[in-house]
Specification:
6-stranded mixed beta sheet; 8-stranded parallel beta sheet; Immunoglobulin-like; Rossmann fold; binds alpha-D-glucopyranose; alpha/beta
């Protein structure tokens, strides 16, 4: 439909029709299962209202979607099609590794490819909008939702975010018509700074930190045309994001030029009443609409109060029209006026879902996401007898809390995948039970705490195991050449509303590791988790540690590909692996201090703890390989004429280049991931010592070397000044190129006055 026709349609709609375009309830309401939708409403919803609404969420399947869409188009006064939205966080049916693991890939092209597959599967199942990517910067592993984020660095998150948006949406509105869906970035903004790792709380952020760390990744997604933005549950300095006009209008629309649609998170508009930012739900509706929330998700304050606010002049009908026009434009970009059913086709849904090609891509993504943290006994070799021990060696539960359209039965377990490697004599033993969230809740819930106060003993998960499991595992380990443990957090232990006060491995898994290490010193551990964990105790039992995150449907094959050396490791940590929970929140790019604690500095009067190190157990950007790489000296050159007024050129102007020769000094082919960091030696605001500004993937055969060259633009040297504007200040900068954030391989450059 042309823009002119859209405007005519809008003009012809009643105020009631317009307002219902701004209302969204979960799909359960359309299939008579409203009670299982998790939305607690204070009133019934009539069928007439339901089919007036502009969109719904969490309903998928071509036939189901088409049935609802047909009824909506027929019953709508202007036959406006609905939007169908879904959490497609790390795959649809072909579930890929969790987003934190996709951050670990340091491979945006792999992220884009996997997301393109997710888009095609989702579109065929009737989805128009994916509530993804989540681009919240995260620094606190206690927060259950770190699993949804690409990690702790603004540049990495922005790079992954762009890849997600391009995978979902293609390269422009024309692509949205077929095999693609609109993307929706979330949770705007600053949700990763949620207090103490708990959901739905406050974030205390200076404007400077917000702009320097928490906003850049969302901005990168806006630059590549993301269609939708979702507001976050948290407040920023006392203002809820769904009522934050500075965030939604000032920054998002006025500064960044975002023209798309803003949707609230689930019930977040109504919760402004509960948190006391609004006196009641009527005021919550007014504050959200005035701030710029176009669609209210899973609550009815717009349906119940907006009309009266307009009629009594508290909000103009023009403001409503602006919101509704954005929604209509999105429907138009998706081609829904011409074809309300878009890609939803049950035959095609079968054809494009979980294909061998999709599975192969997921398998590659798994092998790229795994991070080798330490190594003494890997890879596994033909002819070896290997005891594969732990609940994750057997289970198909490899997806995550955020794979609602994924199915456990689609997952290939480690045990099944082992059949592809007949040259190795595998033996399997469960060894310990998986500990699910409920197990912890039972153990840690209030009545148990009362009991502890009486008897002083807190029953731990180890009470949930039976000795027979342990005994069987120890026997399987005793005379094996090697033992590989498959242990970690259950998929229910991370994701939304899954903050943890501890970040230790389940006690019964540690007990298993200790028992098998006592009879066989050649132990490797593969750790599954939706967050960084405290690996100190495990590190005492295992000579090799692989971080597998939550790998998705091809977890088994992808893990065995790297354990056997068929594929070499190339994953790098997207979040610092803490020494302990006490270090949290933790990041490599904290602001510099006046008394920095050097890595080996014994100084007492420095920024340090007296009882634990400052340093994480493993730093951001770290990851080993089966081979070794060396990094030659950094060579930096000016790329513009010496007399160029560097500060007056465009942001994307290349001012310098920095090169480094990377060499494979080991015996097997591997992929080096040279990482570019930049540090501003002196600036008008204190800045981090160094910040990631680029990386590359370089495949090298044994003995081979290649020179990587990075272009350094004005923007890469700039920062947000005291006036909240981007600025490049003259002076010296350090350019680092190395294996991780602790590299000291640097060259200095000078930006002239
Ligand atoms: C949830 C999440 C959000 C998700 C939405 C719809 O509460 O915060 O990430 O997209 O509701 O399921």
């Amino acid at each position: 439909m042309t823009e002119e026709k859209l405007l005519e349609l809008l003009k012809d709609m009643s105020l009631t029709e317009k307002i219902y375009q701004m209302v969204q309830l979960p799909g359960g309401f359309y299939s008579g299962a409203a009670e299982d939708s998790g939305t607690s409403l204070d009133r019934k919803v009539s069928e007439e209202e339901l089919y007036l609404m502009g969109s719904t969420l969490s309903v998928w399947g071509a036939d189901r979607v088409n049935t609802i869409q047909k009824k909506a188009v027929e019953s709508q006064p202007h036959h406006i099609p609905m939007l169908f939205m879904m959490d497609v966080i790390h795959g649809f049916r072909t579930v890929f590794p969790i987003p934190l693991a996709q951050g670990a890939m340091f491979d945006p092209e792999m992220v884009r490819k996997g997301t393109e597959i997710a888009a095609k599967e989702a579109a065929a199942a009737g989805i128009h909008v994916a509530f993804s990517p989540m681009l919240d910067l995260v620094r606190d592993a206690r927060w259950g939702r770190v699993m949804e984020s690409p990690g702790e660095d603004p540049y990495l998150n922005g790079t992954v975010g762009r890849a997600y948006v391009e995978g979902f949406q293609g390269t422009g509105a024309a692509d949205l018509y077929k095999d693609h869906v609109a993307a929706c970035i979330k949770h705007y903004a600053g949700y990763g700074a949620s207090t103490a790792g708990r959901d739905y709380t406050a974030a205390e952020l200076s404007e400077h930190s917000l702009r320097e760390y928490y906003l850049p990744a969302y901005h990168e997604a806006v630059k590549v045309g993301v269609e939708m933005v979702m507001t976050s549950f948290n407040t920023i300095n006392g203002v809820p994001s769904s009522g934050n006009k500075h965030l939604l209008q000032g920054i998002l629309r006025d500064e960044w030029g975002f023209k798309g649609t803003v949707i609230s998170d689930w019930n977040a508009v109504r919760e402004m009443d509960i948190m006391g930012f609004a006196a009641d739900e009527a005021e919550a509706a007014l504050l959200a609409a005035d701030a710029g929330v176009d669609i209210e998700m899973s609550s009815l304050t717009y349906a119940d109060y907006l009309k009266k606010h307009v009629e009594e002049g508290r909000i103009s009908e023009d403001a409503i029209d602006a919101a509704v026009l954005r929604i209509l434009r999105l429907k138009n970009d998706l081609g829904l006026f011409e074809n309300p059913y878009k890609d939803a086709d049950s035959v095609r849904e079968q054809q494009v879902t979980l294909t061998e090609e999709n599975r192969a891509a997921a398998r590659k993504a798994v092998s790229e996401s795994l991070v080798l943290l330490k190594n003494g006994i890997l890879p596994l070799h033909e002819g070896e007898t290997v005891a594969m021990i732990g609940p994750y060696a057997l289970t198909q539960e490899l997806n995550s809390h955020w794979a609602p359209t994924g199915r456990t039965e689609d997952c290939v377990s480690v045990k099944t995948a082992a059949e592809e490697f007949p040259g190795i004599r595998f033996r399997f033993a469960e060894g310990a039970k998986m500990i699910r969230r409920n197990d912890y809740m039972d153990v840690r819930s209030e009545h148990i705490i009362e009991k502890v106060r009486e008897c002083g003993i807190l029953p731990g998960p180890e009470d949930l195991d039976d000795e027979a499991l342990l005994t069987e595992a120890v026997e399987a380990a005793r005379d094996a050449d090697k033992v590989v443990l498959f242990i970690g957090e259950h998929v229910t232990m991370s994701g939304e509303a899954n903050g943890r006060g501890e970040i230790t491995l389940p006690a019964n898994h540690l007990r298993l590791a200790k028992a098998v290490a006592a009879v066989n010193p050649n132990v490797a551990a593969v750790v599954f988790a939706g967050r960084p964990l405290d690996l100190r105790e495990l590190s005492g039992y295992a000579k090799s540690i692989v971080y597998a995150w939550l790998p998705g449907v091809m977890g088994g094959p992808g893990i065995l590909d790297v354990l056997t050396g068929k594929v070499n490791f190339s994953g790098r940590l997207p979040m610092s692996m803490p020494y302990s929970v006490s270090q949290l929140p933790l990041c490599y790019n904290e602001y510099r201090q006046g008394r920095p604690k050097g890595l080996d500095d014994p100084g007492i009067f420095t920024s340090c703890y007296s009882d634990i190190p400052n340093r994480p157990l493993y730093p951001f950007g770290y990851g080993l390989s089966y081979t070794e790489f060396t990094y030659g000296p950094v060579e930096a050159k000016c790329a513009v004429p010496a007399d160029a007024a560097l500060r007056d050129v465009a942001e994307d102007t290349v001012l310098f280049t920095a090169s480094c020769t990377v060499k494979n000094t080991g015996a097997v082919t591997g992929t080096a991931v040279p990482e570019l960091y930049i540090g501003d030696v002196a600036s008008s605001l204190v800045r981090p010592l160094k910040e990631l500004k680029g990386f590359a993937r370089v495949d090298l055969a044994p003995g081979e070397e290649k020179t990587v060259t990075f272009e350094i633009t004005k923007d890469m040297l700039s920062f947000t000044g005291a006036d909240n504007r981007r600025v490049l200040e003259p002076g010296a900068f350090r350019i680092y190129i190395g294996a991780d954030c602790e590299t000291e391989n640097l060259a200095e450059i000078e930006v002239e006055r």
